[in-house]
Amino acid sequence: MSMIGDIARLPAGVPxxxxxxxxxxxxAEDYVALLKPRVMSLVVFTALVGLMAAPGPIxxxxxxxxxxxxAVGAGASGALNMWYDADIDALMTRTxxxxxxxxxIAPGEALGFGITLAGFAVVVLGLLVSWLAAAxxxxxxxxxxxxxxxxxxxxxxxxxxxxxxxGALPPVIGWAAVTGSITLEPLLLFLIIFVWTPPxxxxxxxxxxxxxxxxxVPMLPVVAGAAATRRQIMIYSLLLIPVGAxxxxxxxxxxxxxxxxxxxxxxxxxxxxxxxxxxxGKAATTAARQxxxxxxxxxxxxxxxxxxxxxxxxVVG
Length: 317
Description:
single chain; 317 residues; mainly alpha; Tetracycline Repressor, domain 2; two-stranded antiparallel sheet; 2 strands
């Protein structure tokens, strides 16, 4: 343990005593929690798909380095997000157990941890793999922390729509790590995640509307109401069918992927229909929760098929 003096911005939801010199009680588990490991795992997986789908060889050590840097960059984003949003997190049931609201980690510790990881990830990725990939990673971190966390999240119900760009960039970074360029194919992968993000998070927001309202976060259900949110979920889910199939439609993926995308997209729309039509009580909550869970499986399934096709193509080639 060590003595710390936190002079960082103290979130409103954290007691003033957190700013005084105190004994750090943080454990390794607390620092891992700052990284948002579940989010990080999805980021790394989509980046791996972008890396494997890219044409041309890459040394396994460089591939591992690229994925490690992307993972560390994603973790840095999570830590900086928790630092800035500690006031909100303290008011929400879903996030009240995070390290800063629980006073396991002081805000300044999280800030320093996040900045250190971000700098390490960007510099190492640039020096050892690709400066284009490093620039994209730096942009992703800045966009998520500054544009989404500090601005959009607290100011507009479209926060998750615009902010979703940060979560959609990892496959583009993976592609750039191999090729040193950006072409249409990784942009299609970006578009899939970008269009997938709003219905995924709005399904969760329907379940956690009271949480967001209590914390003063203008999520769509809080500002526009549940009916408008359900309508937007339907629109984005419908749009996701052709967008999800676009790698196949443009000739970048095989028939197996195309059929998977169409079937998975139809199921996504079916779950969205359930959310739209079940508007009261437990049935509404169950429908939203089922869609949230399925949306994760949807994205994982599409990218898993792309990964298998890419690996098979490299083996055959």
